[in-house]
Amino acid sequence: MAWTRDQMAARAARELKDGFYVNLGIGMPTLVANHIEPGIDITLQSENGMLGMGPFPFAGDEDPDLINAGKQTITELRRTSYFSSAESFAMIRGGHMDLSILGAMEVAQNGDIANWMVPGKLVKGMGGAMDLVAGARRIVVLMDHNDKAGGTKFKAACSLPLTGANVVDVIITDLAVFERADRKGAPFRLVETAPGVTADEVRAKTEASYDD
Amino acid sequence: MARLFPDAAAALDGLLFDGMTIAAGGFGLCGIPEQLIAGIAASGVKDLTIISNNAGVDGFGLGVLLHSRQVRKMISSYVGENKEFERQYLSGELELEFAPQGTLAERLRAGGAGIPGFYTRTGVGTLVAEGKEHKDFDGETYILERGIVADLAIVHAWQADPYGNLVYRKTARNFNPNAATAGRVTIAEVEAMVEPGSLDPDGVHTPGVYIQRMIVAATNEKRIENRTTRERA
Fold first, then answer.
1. I want to staple B148 with a disulfide (CB 3.0 to 4.6 A). Which of A54, A102, B111, B162 is the partner?
2. pLDDT digit string, tens, across residues A85-102
3. Which of B100, B175, B177 sits opposite A126 (nearest CB)?
């Protein structure tokens, strides 16, 4: 049976190592924060200018000056620091973020990712996604294995305009987990399947080539 | 030296002209200079190029200037929450340049620091890289991005002293310090003017040298775009 969104988020949380500085993308990646295991100390970055992002506030405690990159009201922690957008992306671009988890429309077998525009549809912008995939040390993609029409999202080559070239290290879908050893030509490898999902089923539903 | 003006109209007087570029601080609706935006709208100045991470929402923030059709071009990273923006963009009335968020912030920082361009990995291999100089350093490919200097920068801060030293509050800081450095003239809209000597010099976020004009705006709406809360246990 395919993993639920929460189970995917829980699987993604296992990519977080103790002491990591992590940026979680908007949408499903945000759920990962709910599944960080006890004993694993993570500092979350919000690219609008905050390290040490806390949970949503209690009703009545919302502060318009305290939001995350999804423009949601949040809270601060004892470790929190604030800084400008240039400083925020300096720490991203400079390789100081250990890991970022993002959603995607497509990922290619060479590690390319497309998640910001569909030609012919209204483009809202890339926000910080291009900076994150270019700068964070490890990129984990959290996405459905297939699109709503059943089409494959892990592809031989991206058909949509790229967000970054050769940047993805781990792909977690509702069916399986793929990982590659490096960005220098190592192929993605199927490392895990959801309970009851066979490697053959994954193969049948995937366009990309990968190692078993 | 920073001077205090009684309101936005007075602070903007003599600075606005058609076709000018304006850099604005703020992220979404957080930390935006509400009064200065309203003052620019009221002035009727047009054909503006606005450099801002976002474009406001319908009827609020920079959305006000879009609605009054005073904007010719936006340079932004994300413009999601704005129907009027969509309409003008799709009809070709509005020009749009997307810049990755970190590249946009660094372009302002660089422009303000006298750096006309810088190389970044962000955007390599994407549409953003098209037409830009590529250069390899230590086996990695980078693209050249240009610094931005704007005719006017408008920013929002929490506290200021009479010398233009600014302190921002929480994530309302965002693009404000970077935009503040990138204006040929910069106007700060502040929530509170404090007595000389009462800001900790070690805690000043934007030194007063960057600020030419100020207004106090104690009554801003500070609208919340996406109110999220949790239950008390």
1. B111
2. 999 999 999 999 999 999
3. B100
Residue A86 and residue B177: Cβ atoms within 8 Å?
yes
DSSP B94: S
CA distance A98 to B119: 22
Handedness of CA B112, B117, B121, B124 (dihedral sign): positive
Predicted TM-score of the model (pTM): 0.97
Q: Using the beta-carbon criterion (under 8 Å), do A126 and B227 form an inter-chain contact?
A: no
pLDDT value at residue A64: 96
Are B226 and A48 in contact (CB < 8 Å)?
Answer: no
Q: Looking at beta carbons, which residues of chain B come within 8 Å of A89?
A: 101-103, 105-106
Q: Measured between CB atoms, does A118 come within 8 Å of chain B?
A: no
- The SS3 call for residue B104 is helix
DSSP for residue A211: B
Q: Which one, of A135, A32, A89, lies nearest residue B77 by Cα?
A: A89
- How many CB atoms sit inside 10 A of residue B6's CB? 9
Q: Taking 80 as the threshold, does the pLDDT of residue B81 lie above it?
A: no
| A window 78-97, beta carbon within 8 A of B | 82-86, 88-90, 92-93
Q: How many CB atoms lie within 10 A of CB B176?
A: 31
The Cα B151–Cα B16 span in angstroms is: 9
Contacts of B32 in chain A (CB under 8 A): none
Looking at residue B164, its pLDDT comes to: 98
The answer to whether residue A63 neighbours chain B at the CB level (below 8 Å) is yes
Stretch (H or E) spanning A204: helix A199-204
Would the CB atoms of B101 and A112 count as touching at under 8 Å? no
> Which positions of A are catalytic?
47
How far is the C-alpha of A82 from the C-alpha of B29, rounded, in Å?
Answer: 17
d(CA B100, CA B173): 19
Q: How far is Cα of residue B137 from the mean position of the Cα atoms in its chain?
A: 31
Residue B91 touches partner A, C-beta closer than 8 Å: no
Q: Is the dihedral of CA A153, A159, A162, A166 positive or negative?
A: positive
B228: contact with A, CB 8 A cutoff:
yes
3-state secondary structure of B187: strand
d(CA A108, CA A206): 11
Q: Which residues pair with B226 in a beta bridge?
A: A72
Closest residue to A89, CB basis, from B86, B101, B128:
B101
**Which tens digit of pLDDT belongs to each residue from B91-144?**
889 999 999 999 999 999 999 999 999 999 999 999 999 999 999 999 999 999
